Amino acid sequence: MTTLRRSALLTFAAPLALGLAACGDSATTEGEVAEGEPIADIAAPAGQSWADTATVSEYDGYVMGNPDAPVKLVEYASLTCGACAAFSTDAAEPLREEYINSGVVSYEIRNQVHNPIDLVLARLVRCGQPESFHPLAEQVWSNLSQVMQQAQANGPALEAAMSLPEDQRFAAIGEASGLFDFFAARGISRDQARTCLADNASVMAIAQRSEDQSTEFNVTGTPTFFLNGSRVDGTSWTVVEPLLQRAGAR
């Protein structure tokens, strides 16, 4: 059995109740964030703001801001994780306005997949241009209760969708969970979403990367943060912001 096949089976063995046992504070300190002198703002290209700039990293993470920023914040996040939603609620605006737009800080989200809905969401937030990834993820997190309630309200159809062949499964999950309507209201048409989820290889690649990187970086729960390569001991904005400042973003 290939690693990819194992990943697929593990992903779809998740209970329909979508318990979030892996969501929470799992970080432990592996290195101190180096203290640096204050770093001067770095101008964005003419006519642009850094918060509107997005690139895809070698780890298939979506980087908001200056790709060469001297202070790099990475979050391993699940789109069905309440703690990740709480961080987004507290951090999205100040992180974007005060740190990313300065050009000093970049913010990269790498998906960690916990369950079938998580995997479908991870593909759907990638359906547009890279610049839409972070705004769509923020929309999922700000409406997480609605998203999860809608998914669980149609339990029999969702269970049936999960048993379909892989080339039909993901689109059927998107339909049964109400996610097509959710994303259509946010600029990803139903046809576009269906096409994205019909690309079975791209969906399974997300699951594979999640498994591989969780092993490589010992990520056992979400959110887990790394700042300039050092693991952050904590999951809240009140923990992360002082570390950004310590690293020179001030």
Task: Label this structure with key terms.
signal; disordered N terminus; alpha+beta; Thioredoxin-like_sf; six-stranded mixed β-sheet; Thioredoxin domain-containing protein; Glutaredoxin; Thioredoxin-like_fold; 6 strands; 250 residues
What does this structure look like?
It is a single chain. The chain has 250 residues and is α+β, with helices and mostly antiparallel strands. The protein has a single domain, classed as Glutaredoxin (3-Layer(aba) Sandwich). 47% of the residues lie in helices and 10% in strands. It has helices at residues 3-12, 82-99, 116-124, 133-142, 144-153, 155-162, 166-176, 179-184, 190-198, 200-216, 237-246; strands at residues 54-56, 62-64, 71-77, 105-111, 224-227, 230-231. The protein has a 6-stranded mixed β-sheet, covered by helices on one side. Helix 2 (82-99) links the parallel strand 3 (71-77) and strand 4 (105-111). It starts with a helix and ends with a helix. The relative contact order is 0.21.
